[in-house]
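Researcher: Last one for today. Full complex below.
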Amino acid sequence: MRRFSWFNATSLTLGFAFLYLPMVILVIYSFNSSKLVTVWAGFSTKWYGELFQNEAFLDAAWVTIRVAVISSSVATVLGTMAAYVLVRGGRFRGRTVFSGMIYAPLVMPEVITGLSLLLLFIGIGLDRGVFTIILAHATFSMCYVSVVVSSRLVSFDQSLEEAALDLGCTPWQAFRLVTLPIIAPAVISGWLLAFTLSLDDLVIASFTAGPSSTTLPIKIFSAVRLGVSPEINALSTIMIGIVTVGVVTFSIMSKRNAVRREREARAADRVA
Amino acid sequence: MKRLLIAVPYFWLLALFLVPFLIVLKISLSDVALARPPYFPQWHLEDGASALLSYLREWDFENFVFLTTDDLYWKAYLSSAKIAFVATFFTLLVGFPIAYGMARAPTEWRPTLMMLVILPFWTSFLIRVYAWIGILSGEGYLNQFLLWIGIIQEPLIILNTNIAVYIGIVYTYLPFMILPIYSALEKLDESLLEAAEDLGCSRFTAFWLITFPLSKQGIIAGCFLVFIPTIGEFVIPSLLGGSSTLMIGKVLWEEFFNNRDWPVAGAVAIVLLLILIIPIILFQRNEQKNREADK
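Model: Here's the assembly. Have a good evening.
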């Protein structure tokens, strides 16, 4: 049985304190009744009430959620297709350019991605708004989805697909009945990644948004430039809460699935 | 079927990644003009092929020359590189002990620790940067605390300086440093350390001669993962940095939105990419070496 050595325990404690203390402080002070954010004046939930009365924030939140749901779904479909082609497609013309275009956006500074998309939209005369943000987000997050899905595709046994084809499946049936269930966890985490990337993005959205389509990060950024405000603290607390619940649930579920699969595999071994 | 599967993502990326990039390149070769869109020359399909030639002749590298003459730009590039370099170093300094502690933790603890490292990564970047404004400001929590315990008599000025930028970068990019180092350390065969100690090494020497070299690939990967995105960073310098904080992402933003000089913004972007190509290629090489070592 291993134990923590004092050195490791100290470095982990300090490290995680550094990672979590700022967020914990943020959450605590969102329940502060004072308008002065740094002075504690007693417990209150009034900033949450004010937040839900603030139409501008609610509108921005609605835009953000719509953009995130649509763009991450588009990105998941495109990214899965791209991953499948790259891993299983064999050689085809333009493969190098293709894989280059998949990996380049991952290292491209956001300011450049945003600038270039904005210039494109102006060039073709597309009015900027929710639609252009969706296009922009789907483009850069499909690359992330593709990386996540292709790492799963590389690691699974291709003979399963071949067996399905030998037994008379069409390629589409083989994909739907064999490949998709196996890569499903990766596809789901790809979608979640694309969703949070979209939810979080400030720079690319600022370039591609029109005047009537402010997203939440744009709104937060312009409010934060004027300094700390208790309403933003309340909003941050809500967002941190949602992410925490989401990530913890997802990891518990995938752990349970892994345990169940292992049990099934063992049962199958016994039968065989 | 296969053609369709290739064509859809291919043309999507072509239209929304490669073409926009070529437009930036084109505009960086044009001149700024008081028009809509604010650059010159313009060429439209109906102008015909003869106009195209004179149009192409109007292109020049003036904007790139301009970048070298105005010292704002090369100072911004240099200072971005410097900030990214120093911040990467500190991220390594903070991240390594955490990764080490995780890799040496009891096995049943590791998934939880792993989740604790990943969780901030899923939390909004903007919010994590914002959290530091309240901590570092003049009447912020850090100053309140230090005044209270009596270490300082007057509040420290940290917010809107480069120190705040460093803290912001270390904080937000820490998971990118921890994860590759952790995965390198976790693979490390501990009997090597026992052997070294049996052969008379002190714990420190054993660490220096065995653990450190064997985690080198992870360290390098982590450093690149922090360094590359930091160079073009915009949010951290504009929220935590001051007017003296020069970073190229911020310069590009201001050139475009405040000065409306599209050609210069385009040129700034192109040069930034050229600078980034070197660390990206080095990173790819390192990854390849990693993969070969795993086989």
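Chain A has a mean pLDDT of 89. Chain A touches chain B through 80 residues (CB under 8 Å).
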